[in-house]
Specification:
single chain; mainly beta; Jelly Rolls
Length: 275
C-alpha cells in the first residue's frame, strides 16, 4: 500500500531557472515541501514530454563550421557557418552547399553521400585545387572524421576526388532519453545512471512531441527525502551516455512522491544535490 503525498507538475516554461541548451530546469518550492519522517518514500514519473528535435549541429555544440580551402590565386580559406539544426547526411550536404554558394564557391563543390554499407560518409569534391579541413569547431565527430584531418591528406585535389571517412558517422546518437531529478539518488538502471526516474526511446517524428506515459509506474527509492524540507527541485534530460541534451523547446514532467505504508528508519544525512 502506498499514499501519494505530493503531485509535482514541473514544466520548464515555469521554472525559476532553466538552460534548454542542457535540458535543465530548476524550481523553487515556496513554501518548502516538508516530508514526513519514520516512513519509506518513493518517487515515480507518470508523464514527461519533450519535442523530438535534438540539434546535432549548433553553435552551442561547437560543431557548426565546415572549412574548405583552395590554392587559387595565392589561396583562400572559407569557414562556412552552418545553421543550427537536426540534420541527416543529405540535408547537411545541402546546407554546406548553400553556405558555400553564399561564400562565392561553385555550386556542388562538396557533396556528402551516406555509405549505408559502412555507416560512413563519402566526401566528394567535384573539381581540382580544393581541400577540406577539420579544426576545432567543425563537425568532424558528426561526420566520422578525426580532429585536424585533411581531405585529401596529401594536399589539394588534382581533379574530382572521393574519400570515405575513417570512422562511423554519428548523426543519430540519442537512443534513449533519461529523466533525472534531484528528488532521488537511486537510478532506475542498477546504478548505471544517477537520479534517473524514467527512460524513453524517442520514436516520434522529428519536430513532434514525444510523450512518456508508462502503463506500469516505476517506483524509485527516495529515502534521502525522509524528514527533509525541499526548497528546490531540479530536473534534467540526458541521453543514454549521460550526455546533456540540447532542446529547442520546453519540456515537462509529472512526478509523484509516495509514502509506503510500512514504517522504516533511514539515514537521512544524504540529501538531494542540485545539478
Amino acid at each position: 500500500m502506498s499514499e501519494t503525498i505530493s503531485v509535482l507538475y514541473l514544466n520548464s516554461a515555469q521554472a525559476n531557472t532553466k538552460d534548454l541548451t542542457k535540458a535543465k530546469a530548476s524550481f523553487v518550492m515556496d513554501p518548502p515541501l516538508v516530508m514526513p519522517g519514520n516512513c519509506k518514500l518513493k518517487v515515480t514519473c507518470t508523464q514527461f514530454s519533450f519535442t523530438n528535435w535534438f540539434l546535432n549541429v549548433s553553435a552551442a555544440l561547437a560543431n557548426n563550421h565546415f572549412v574548405i580551402s583552395d590554392n587559387i590565386g595565392g589561396g583562400h580559406t572559407f569557414t562556412l557557418v552552418i545553421p543550427d539544426g537536426s540534420y541527416n547526411v543529405t540535408d547537411l550536404s545541402n546546407a554546406i552547399n548553400v553556405a558555400g554558394i553564399n561564400a562565392g564557391l561553385v555550386d556542388g563543390l562538396v557533396q556528402l553521400v551516406p555509405d549505408f554499407s559502412t555507416n560512413k560518409v563519402l566526401f566528394k569534391i567535384s573539381v581540382a585545387n580544393y581541400q577540406i579541413s577539420f579544426p576545432a569547431g567543425t563537425m568532424y565527430a558528426l561526420l566520422g572524421t578525426n580532429l585536424a584531418q585533411l581531405i585529401p591528406a596529401g594536399g589539394f585535389t588534382a581533379a574530382a576526388y572521393n574519400e570515405l571517412a575513417p570512422l562511423v558517422a554519428n548523426f543519430n546518437s540519442v537512443l534513449n532519453v533519461y529523466l533525472h531529478t534531484s528528488l532521488s539518488n537511486n537510478a532506475v538502471f542498477s546504478g548505471k545512471q544517477s537520479n534517473v526516474i524514467a527512460s524513453i526511446i524517442p520514436v516520434a517524428s522529428v519536430g513532434s512531441i514525444q510523450i512518456y506515459e508508462p502503463p506500469n509506474l516505476i517506483m524509485v527509492d527516495a529515502h534521502e527525502l525522509v524528514s527533509a524540507s525541499i526548497s528546490t527541485i531540479n530536473i534534467y534530460l540526458t541521453d543514454q551516455n549521460n550526455n546533456s541534451l540540447y532542446l529547442t523547446d520546453d519540456f515537462s514532467s509529472t512526478i509523484l512522491i509516495q509514502r509506503v505504508a510500512d514504517p522504516i528508519s533511514y539515514d537521512t544525512a544524504k540529501r538531494p544535490q542540485p545539478f
